[in-house]
Amino acid sequence: MASSAPRQGLAFVYVTTLFFIWGAVTSVNDILLPAVKEIFTLTDTQGFLTQFAFFMAYFVVSLPAAAVDQKLGSARSIILALAIMVLGCLLMPVATHVRSYSIVLVALFVIASGITLLQVAANPLSAVLGPPEKSHFRLVLSQAFNSLGTVVGPYLAAHTLLQGGLFDGGAPTEAKIVESLGRIDVAYYFIAAVIVLLAIFLFTARDRIASAAPNLEAGTGGIGQALGARWALLGAGAIFLYVGAEVSIGSTMVNFLEQPNILAIAAADAGKLVSLYWLGAMIGRFVGSGLLTVVPAGRLLTLVAGVAALLCLTVSQIQGHPAAVIAISIGLFNSIMFPVIFTLTLERSTAPAPATSGLLCMAIVGGALMPLVFAKVADMTASRSTAFLVPMACYILITLFAIAAGRARIVQEADPAVGSH
């Protein structure tokens, strides 16, 4: 047993690297959105279709991904997932060459499909690669590196996507459009190259990863069983609302901050500030993991969701630097919501844990749908500030979920091998 510990520790490092990668790739969408809006002259609603295409993959691909993972095993599924992500990245230059926003959306869907399979394969590995009593610590640590990826991704992407070309100011010209399209190519070629290097590295270590992980038991029960469990449905609703609110705010942040009545800064500078939104989430996960040892999960979720709702209301009513600071600070309070909603739901659901977890993963589709509502409100009211009332409503409903969960009876111990976002 002692001899397996070093193998498991090294395998855990490999797997945690994946959390970082998919966090970084996902967060690049927040910078890509204002870039394609400018290039293709899109409304807010049309621009937010990037997030719709990306997060819809969670709904479409979750079940097939689970079947692939069961057939191939975690190590080989990870390699396949990375290959799918590379394919999606290489579709992006095709989209820019023919100047097709539709192909941009297809490329994002393919990338997200790879990430969905990656999450299905990597999350259970993170939980079992080490002593069972430290499984929660490992998940929190992996999630912290996921958050680190969401900090690094927007900062680097802003340097590439939101500078030069159409973002140099002045009237749009053919030369500026070509330069901006070329910057998208550079960004996704770079992402593809990093993923290829990681895939080659993990391919050489695939047997080591497989031998370090105990045999993961096949899940029992389909998602259909979760549809008959009240708390599984409530938890799925909360995940839907949380991911929808988080993605809505992150996606609008660049355009929100660059507005004359907020910070009146260049898009590239606003893009770099998006990293602070995700940095708050990373810090909050470290702090939140400590607080959860002394504060009941339901009570802490009630607090952070309530504060997030209040912050959204405040942003909708004010302007200038205070509005910018408060909007960015919402990330801090988002931090613990996803894992806490997961565990509260698993503890209270009467459906088998695999069935409940599957339904919760599918609910991440909220990241596809709620941002469209946010964008529609922004377009209708001509105010991105007013649109913050949409995530405010989401956080209020999550607060009600947390209060109800705190009063509900626990029917089973939560399975540590839950998802990460």
Summed up, what is this model?
The protein has 421 residues and is mainly α. It has helices at 4-27, 29-40, 44-47, 49-72, 74-98, 101-128, 135-161, 174-204, 206-212, 223-226, 230-257, 267-291, 297-317, 320-334, 337-348, 353-362, 366-381, 389-407.
What do you see in this structure?
The chain is mainly α. The protein has one domain (4-407): Growth Hormone, Chain: A, CATH 1.20.1250. 79% of the residues lie in helices and 0% in strands. It has 18 helices and no strands. The protein has helices at residues 4-27, 29-40, 44-47, 49-72, 74-98, 101-128, 135-161, 174-204, 206-212, 223-226, 230-257, 267-291, 297-317, 320-334, 337-348, 353-362, 366-381, 389-407. α1 packs antiparallel against α6 (101-128). The longest helix has 31 residues, at 174-204. The radius of gyration is 21 Å and the shape is globular.
**Percent helix:** over 70%
Number of domains: 1
> Which CATH architecture is right?
Up-down Bundle
Roughly how many Å apart are the termini?
A: 32 Å
The total beta strand count reads: 0
The gross shape turns out to be globular
Class based on secondary structure composition and strand pairing: mainly alpha
CATH fold category name: Growth Hormone, Chain: A
The biggest sheet amounts to: none
Q: For the CA atoms, what is the radius of gyration?
A: 21 Å
**Total of DSSP H or I helical runs spanning 4+ residues:** 18
Poorly predicted regions are 216-221, 414-418
> Approximately what portion of the residues adopt beta-strand conformation?
under 5%
Mean pLDDT: 87
CATH classification, class level: Mainly Alpha
Q: What is the CATH superfamily label?
A: MFS general substrate transporter like domains
H-E string: HHHHHHHHHHHHHHHHHH
